[in-house]
Model the fold of this input.
Amino acid sequence: MKQAVKLDRRSLLAYTGLAPLIGAMPLAARAAEETAAEKADYTLRIATGLVELSPEHIVSTTLYNGQFPGPVIRLQEGKRFVIDVHNDTDVPELVHWHGQMIPSDVDGASEEGTPFIAPHGMRRIAFVPKPAGFRFVHTHVVAGSDLNRGTYTGQAAPVYIEPANNPGAYDREVFLVLKEFEPSFSQGGDMPQEALAGAPIAELQQIGKKLDQQFKGPKGYEVGYELFSINGKQLGHGEPIRVKPGERVLFHILNASAGEIRSLALPGHQFHVIALDGNPVPTPADVPALWLGTAERISAIVGMNHPGVWVMGDLADDDRKHGMGIVVEYAGHSGKPQWAKPTSFRWDYTQFGNAAGQPAAPDETIEITVVKHNAEDHGFNRWLVNGEAFSMQTMKPTYTVRQGGRYRLKFRNASDDIHPLHLHRHSFELVRVGDKATVGVIKDVVMLGGFQEVEFDFVADNPGLTLFHCHQQLHMDYGFMALFRYA
Ligand SMILES: [Cu+2]
Done:
């Protein structure tokens, strides 16, 4: 990449003779001049386009740079990045840099104060990418009852921030983006409750049961999908992943769903998990299957030591048959791709942590209980965070933190749904999942099981309004959000 001549405020001030001149310019005008003089490193276009999932299923949706998934955006940790985002649609849009510690005005959440990109408008943004690792970029608008908006569309792309050194020895890397299309509402639908380790807590079940009696009647709307894909292709379409025996392939897997929990297995192979949400784990471990909540990422090395032609696919038969899979083909092998369900296995984040370690003591513990009011909002479930559904009018609930403080969030789920909890602009460290303590697992999304508890710590080290929410589009749109404000 060409090194642009960059005159930032600090380097200009270094020439002491220029300092008074710079000081006379209004800050905003100066910032505008600096970016206008610069050439953008990247252009992102938001526009309607087609995705050919298979010859029988070509869907029309909103895309990044005309394709799904959007192109992998490679950044360098600490090297300033300038991007022009063009919104070629008729509606305001937002681009969220998921998993990065950047300022609120570029993070991409209107609740934090990021400006919208106007319809047929352009916004130039610049930030210093960090931390290194596997991140992603996606839209962050409210969809509500509109299944043509928000993360129901194809607005998602992997982002890889190049680290100083790579976390493992591997021969090549492959990005996999898991995504459903053709959503519709229904009353019903179940989450895969066999996914997560841990047991429900009786007290939380009691709270949920009481509320279900209070808000009885037809079930609130849930979203289901017709079509499933990996890298924008239904299983059996698109190119297989071609491998050679003995090869070590590093997979970077992203669940870009609007709300589904996904699983992935490759018959006869193990996934050696080395990073979660792009952050190296203290205890890399082999697992027969992966589980990813919405917006979670897993980086895992697969040793290709079981020659054949295989389906790498979702454990849910129906979803896999509708496209959630990709073929892995060894050199010199051909024929129908084979699938076999792995031995049953529950996803346990603590297996990748340091069980013997002690987390640093928090300055404050914030306990948050989440409840569901069945079908309370025009047939949609309303979600309450400590008794309040988030509102842009009141900007509540809001919690105040002090810069430098370490905060422990203790989440209690009084509903049967799995919630992928996401904190913007900060990473957090898991300290307890159910009844298991752990340290060292750094994430930005964590699945909270039905009627279960999870605790994680974050350090308030990135001042500015910070959004917290469930990454299930339907849940966040109907109340499951909160803000953190620096005192
Ligand atoms: Cu949720």
